[in-house]
Design brief:
396 residues; seven-stranded parallel beta sheet; 13 strands; alpha/beta; globular; Rossmann fold; single chain; 12 helices
């Protein structure tokens, strides 16, 4: 079928298999262009491996360090009449590229929060790899079913304690509007922590450790974001922020558990980027558009693959993690530099619908959003029919 983008709200309901393949190829080229990650990981598990930071983590490990990798995700395959989700096509492309490079790659499509998927993955590690030396946890989901109780938790994007009003960007029409968000109520905070906090990460690590599939010196990383004060009411000090606080508590607990095998757990604070998750957060798309403009002008802009390559190459496997006062790795350092934040803060006060394209990189935001779904790549002819029913090789 001929595939074109169909956007509804903050998601695109279609994705292009050839465009997604191009996106993966471009990321691989970035990593290869930087050479080998000396002393890098060799057997990697990525939980949440099909899009965004998780996908880039898998690519950076595989093509920067020749790592064998197992990826876990929850994506919808395509049919002849309907496209798959972008993460499905990303994984198809990744596995094909890995095979061409002689790299082991196996994927699991299912509910990563479930005990069933955990058991399947552990069995695969035992059978194929023996142990893993790096575990990346990069799940982003609006809901989670607790595998023990069966309770279903739903996350919310809300401030805590008071109503929050600020500027936001209507990504559909480019209008800078004002948004008012009501504060969390009832068990909103607890529900969000249950979905986006560290409980499942700890369940995964406990299961992996109990099964004996974590190598001596294993490193485990989960991702977080802090951002500037303008986003704090909806992020750092909001319901998501409480979940990230829980994630850091779990990181400290895992550190103690992994010490017995000389392992280490980390929370990596990453840069604000256009991802399927960030697109859903009010206020954030406007901030990202302003940030892109400032960082591109300064020559310091990075995409997810540049961030993940830098995390592995310069922090985790260069003996220079450079943790902050809370023990977090900060690869949001270029974003949070005083020079960049001064520019973004000033423009935040000034930006409106009329001067948006002058002060912000809204076009760059839109292009990055479409690329998440395989659209807008040079070298892809979007006028011709493409096979939307392609399968992930290791799932066939």
């Amino acid at each position: 079928m001929i595939v074109s983008p169909k956007i509804r709200g903050f998601i695109c309901t279609t994705s292009h298999p050839d465009g997604c393949a191009k996106h993966v190829e471009e990321q691989i080229a970035v990593v290869k262009g930087r050479g080998t990650i000396e002393g890098g990981p060799k057997k990697v598990l990525v939980i949440g491996s099909s899009t965004g930071y998780g996908l880039s983590s898998r690519i950076a490990a595989a093509f920067g360090s020749d790592a064998a990798s197992i990826g876990v995700f929850f994506e919808r395959p395509g049919t002849e009449a309907k496209t798959a989700t972008a993460g499905w096509y990303n994984t198809v492309a990744f596995e094909k590229e890995a095979k061409s490079a002689g790299l082991y790659a196996r994927s699991f499509n299912g509910d990563a929060f479930s005990d069933e998927v955990k058991h399947e993955v552990i069995a695969a590690i035992k059978e194929d790899l023996g142990q893993v030396d790096l575990v990346i946890y990069s799940l982003a989901s609006p809901r989670r079913t607790d595998p023990k109780s069966g309770n279903v938790f739903k996350s919310v994007l809300k401030p805590i304690g008071e109503v929050y009003t600020n500027k936001t960007l209507n990504t559909g029409n480019g209008a800078v509007d004002e948004i008012t968000i009501q504060p969390a109520e009832g068990d909103d905070i607890d529900q969000t922590v249950s979905v986006m906090g560290g409980e499942d990460w700890e369940m995964w690590m406990d299961a992996l450790m109990e099964a004996g599939v974590l190598a001596e010196g294993v490193q485990a990383v989960s991702y977080s974001y802090i951002g500037p004060e303008v986003t704090w009411p909806i992020y750092k000090n909001g319901t998501i922020g409480r979940a990230k606080e829980d994630l850091e508590t779990v990181q400290r607990s895992l550190d103690q558990k992994l010490a017995s095998i000389s392992g280490k757990a980390w929370v990596s604070v990453n840069k604000a980027l256009v991802t399927q998750a960030s697109s859903a957060i009010p206020v954030v798309p406007l901030y990202i558009s302003l940030l892109y403009k400032a960082m591109k002008d300064a020559g310091s802009h990075e995409d997810t693959i540049h961030q993940m390559d830098r995390l592995l190459r310069e922090r985790l496997y260069n003996n220079q993690p450079l943790p902050d006062e809370a023990g977090r790795i900060r690869i949001d350092d270029w974003e949070m530099s005083p020079e960049i934040q001064s520019i973004v803060g000033k423009r935040w006060d000034e930006v409106d619908t009329e001067n948006l394209n002058e002060l912000a990189d809204f076009a760059g935001y839109q292009a990055a959003f479409l690329k998440l779904f395989g659209f807008g790549f040079d070298g892809v002819d979007y006028r011709v029919e493409t096979d939307t029913s392609v399968g992930v090789p290791s799932l066939s």
